[in-house]
Specification:
six-stranded mixed beta sheet, about 350 residues, single chain
Length: about 350
């Protein structure tokens, strides 16, 4: 018996009678992390990592939530379940399930490079690995964190010297905190949208060190001219932006590697920043599991399945409703069509 199968409600474990990140209401759900395409309302019982509790309750309301620490073991109908770091966002977890000597791991979303806002990814040995492939194309290779933050810092300093606010669109949960944690605040104040500040509070409550952040209403007009502002992508085109006249705007996403996506967004700058593994990261993570069977969920599924097959692995796919780096927390138009369908690899265009 396969330990995980695809059902209309989501990914289901038959011997344990539970689902992993189901997209329709079920009795028992294990949640890998609190992004809205993986954590949805309506389930009878939720199991997740302890660090994700604050964000989950903030987004889903009062739910029946059981939490575990990384590596802590529980048993459901004879199936042994434990959660292991995914390195994606605060509290993100891979789900290890073991039954009758067979071990499967469902990755959820993950990245392999460390950042100061969440526990680093941990490879878990298994027979079958269920992996995402949001950026499963060879063109996707991220800059180092040091390179990324140096670019953001210089852009901010140049704008501050010209008396222009610097406004960055970044997902309120995950990217915003990662960005804030890496900045040198000597240039000016860090200002955040209310949606970002709400998530910041959950991070701080979980023990993550973040610099001081302020709301726009707490700053003078002079201070705002030197500020770096972090806001959800949806705020960039809203009336909220009127608080920052003459602002320079930017967007932080893995899709910013492709200039066509930057052009569609219509911002001054695009920063290549993702909480998902890039192409080398996906390859290294899969190899490290030792799995001989790999099931691909969302992203560049055909490309990843073909590459895995070429490596001599048993590769297949599950059809899911996960959205990767897009959907409800971003702008679905930013997703390059080829990355969605697994068609021909798009060629990144050089900056003008």
């Amino acid at each position: 018996m396969d330990l995980v199968v695809a059902r209309p409600e989501g990914l289901y474990c038959p011997p344990g009678d539970f689902y992993i990140d189901p997209w329709r209401p079920v009795a028992r759900a294990i949640i890998t992390h609190a992004h809205s395409d993986h954590a949805r309302v309506g389930h009878g019982h939720y199991l997740a990592h302890a660090a994700s509790a604050g964000v989950l309750r903030g987004r889903l309301g009062e739910i029946e939530l059981q939490t575990l620490d990384y590596g802590e073991l529980v048993t459901q109908q004879g199936v042994r379940i434990s959660l292991h770091p995914a390195g994606h966002v605060l509290g993100s977890a891979q789900v290890r399930i073991e039954w009758q000597g067979e071990v499967w791991v469902a990755s959820g979303d993950y990245k392999v490079e460390a950042d100061p806002t969440c526990t680093p990814f941990e490879a878990v040995r298994c027979h079958t690995f269920i992996t995402e492939s949001t950026f499963g194309l060879p063109i996707y290779r991220w800059p180092t964190p040091a390179q990324l933050m140096a670019e953001v810092q210089q852009w901010w300093a140049d704008n501050a010297a010209a008396g222009r606010p610097s406004v960055v669109g970044a997902y309120a949960f995950g990217k915003a905190q990662r960005l804030l944690a890496g900045l040198d605040t000597s240039t000016g104040p860090l200002v955040v949208h209310g949606a970002v500040e709400a998530v910041n509070q959950s991070y701080r409550a979980a023990g993550v060190a973040l610099p001081e952040t302020r709301l726009a209403t707490d700053c003078s007009a002079t201070e705002l001219k030197r500020a770096l502002v972090v806001a959800p992508p949806s705020a960039l085109g809203s009336a909220w932006m009127r608080r920052f006249p003459n602002a320079s705007d930017a967007f932080a996403s893995g899709w910013m590697l492709v200039r066509g996506a930057r052009r569609r967004r219509g911002v001054d700058r695009g920063f290549v920043m993702s909480d998902h593994a890039d192409w080398p990261g996906l390859q290294s993570a899969i190899r490290a599991t030792g799995a001989q069977r790999v099931i691909v969920t969302h992203g560049s599924v055909p490309v990843m399945v073909r590459w895995l097959t070429e490596q001599g692995l048993q590769a297949e796919a599950f059809s899911t409703e996960y959205e990767g780096e897009g959907g409800s927390e971003a702008d679905p138009e930013l997703t390059p069509p080829a990355a969605e369908s697994g068609a021909a690899t798009p060629t990144p265009e050089p900056d003008a």
